[in-house]
Amino acid sequence: MADRVLIAISRYYKHISDELELGAMEALKAAGAKVTVMEVPGAFELPGLIAMAADSGRFDGAVALGCVIRGETSHYDYVCGESARGLMDLIVQRRQAIGYGILTVENEDQAWVRADRKQKNKGKDAAEACLAMIKFRKELIG
């Protein structure tokens, strides 16, 4: 049976998140996964969506995709820290298989290098991490 994977994506920086999604989608499709894409307003909301998806029982894992670019205020620190903490809580406390693909960068140039499928392709990396964790969970927990 194909792995059922949610791509949870923040479109706040649309051109960056679109490229992350393409990278993730290529990896998931190559693995034969059944993919559903759902959007949230920003990175802060990603853990909430993934928690709801986990509660639904419809998914074997999730890929969290988005981008947070440092601005002039401390808002960046809260969004980055709390979204990462929320996802880590789901991973550790609820044994969720989550690939982390939220870019946390200083500027848009850094974001593009990491998102671009011809460069660092972090969407692909996050999808592959999710698939690996699904495999481990199936082997260890059932």
From TrEMBL:
Summarize where (2S)-2-hydroxy-3-oxobutyl phosphate binds, as residue positions: E72, T73, R114
A GO CC term? riboflavin synthase complex
Record GO terms (molecular function): 6,7-dimethyl-8-ribityllumazine synthase activity
Annotated pathway, please? Cofactor biosynthesis; riboflavin biosynthesis; riboflavin from 2-hydroxy-3-oxobutyl phosphate and 5-amino-6-(D-ribitylamino)uracil: step 1/2
Alphabetical list of InterPro entries matching this protein: LS, LS/RS, LS/RS_sf
The EC designation for this entry is 2.5.1.78
Catalyses which reaction?
(2S)-2-hydroxy-3-oxobutyl phosphate + 5-amino-6-(D-ribitylamino)uracil = 6,7-dimethyl-8-(1-D-ribityl)lumazine + phosphate + 2 H2O + H(+)
Binding-site list for 5-amino-6-(D-ribitylamino)uracil: Y12, A43, F44, E45, C67, V68, I69, Y100
Question: Example GO biological process term?
Answer: riboflavin biosynthetic process
Keyword list (alphabetical) reads: Riboflavin biosynthesis, Transferase
Q: Where is the active site?
A: H75 (proton donor)
**Which Pfam family would be a valid example here?**
DMRL_synthase
Q: HAMAP family under this entry? A: Lumazine_synth (MF_00178)
Family affiliation: Belongs to the DMRL synthase family.
> NCBIfam families in the record, alphabetically?
lumazine-synth
User: Any idea what job this protein has?
Assistant: Catalyzes the formation of 6,7-dimethyl-8-ribityllumazine by condensation of 5-amino-6-(D-ribitylamino)uracil with 3,4-dihydroxy-2-butanone 4-phosphate. This is the penultimate step in the biosynthesis of riboflavin.
Q: What is the recorded name of this protein? A: 6,7-dimethyl-8-ribityllumazine synthase
